[in-house]
């Protein structure tokens, strides 16, 4: 597994990097058979350290966790516990969904845009109907089954997920509804 361990405006020493590699490696390999890479970012928020970890699995799933504490090692330990709990919850589903999958999930590129919010309060009508693009990014669109897409959305803690449906070979969307259920759009 490849590790990318960084600190935002704080120095990350060799001892902490070794600790992260050992502990996160044990936790992830315990519940996921083929982890690909892990990104761990440490930052400081007021008097607390924050640790954010993202683990990508060869199945296309992405697990994310975050921990906060007054000490940097404690922040990582809390983050690692959350990651392990998350993967443990989905281990049975991961086995069932990916037992027959021999190839990693195929990812397609797409464009993602951030549009400016509505006009200022003083303006009554916008100047044009074209939205103002604030940022443009590349998005990865996985090729998954509907069940895998729901699991990916829950693992990432995202409100919506766009994916290529393996069964119908078209773009689909799953999303969390206000009533707590999952919605699925299949055009």
Automatic annotation (TrEMBL):
Pfam families: Ribosom_S30AE_C, Ribosomal_S30AE
Statement: the UniProt record of this protein carries the keyword Nuclease: no
GO cellular component: cytosolic small ribosomal subunit
Highest taxon of source: Bacteria
Keywords noted in UniProt: Cytoplasm, Translation regulation
InterPro entries assigned to the protein according to its UniProt record, in alphabetical order: HPF/YfiA_ribosome-assoc, HPF_long/plastid, RHF-like, RHF/RaiA, Ribosom_S30AE_C, Ribosom_S30AE_C_sf
Subcellular location: Cytoplasm
GO biological process: negative regulation of translational elongation
Major localization class: cytoplasm
Domain Sigma 54 modulation/S30EA ribosomal protein C-terminal: 130-183
GO molecular function: ribosomal small subunit binding
Complex and partners: Interacts with 100S ribosomes. Associates exclusively with 100S ribosomes, which are dimers of 70S ribosomes.
Family the UniProt entry places it in: Belongs to the HPF/YfiA ribosome-associated protein family. Long HPF subfamily.
Function: Required for dimerization of active 70S ribosomes into 100S ribosomes in stationary phase; 100S ribosomes are translationally inactive and sometimes present during exponential growth.
Protein name (database record): Ribosome hibernation promoting factor
Classification lineage: Bacteria, Pseudomonadati, Pseudomonadota, Alphaproteobacteria, Rhodobacterales
Gene behind the chain: raiA
């Amino acid at each position: 597994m490849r590790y990318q361990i960084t600190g935002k405006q704080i120095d990350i020493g060799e001892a902490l990097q070794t600790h992260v590699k050992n502990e996160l490696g044990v936790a992830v390999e315990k519940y996921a058979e083929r982890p690909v890479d892990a990104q761990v970012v440490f930052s400081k928020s007021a008097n607390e350290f924050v640790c954010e970890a993202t683990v990508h699995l060869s199945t296309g799933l992405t697990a994310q966790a975050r921990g906060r504490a007054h000490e940097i090692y404690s922040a990582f330990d809390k983050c690692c516990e959350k990651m392990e709990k998350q993967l443990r919850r989905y281990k049975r589903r991961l086995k069932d969904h990916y037992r027959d999958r021999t190839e990693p999930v195929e990812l397609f590129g797409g464009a993602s845009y951030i549009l400016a919010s509505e006009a200022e309060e003083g303006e009554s009508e916008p100047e044009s109907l074209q939205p103002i693009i604030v940022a443009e990014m590349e998005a990865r669109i996985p090729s998954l089954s509907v069940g895998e897409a729901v699991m990916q959305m829950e693992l990432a803690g995202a409100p919506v997920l766009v994916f290529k449906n393996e069964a119908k070979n078209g773009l689909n969307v799953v999303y969390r509804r206000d009533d707590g259920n999952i919605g699925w759009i299949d055009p």
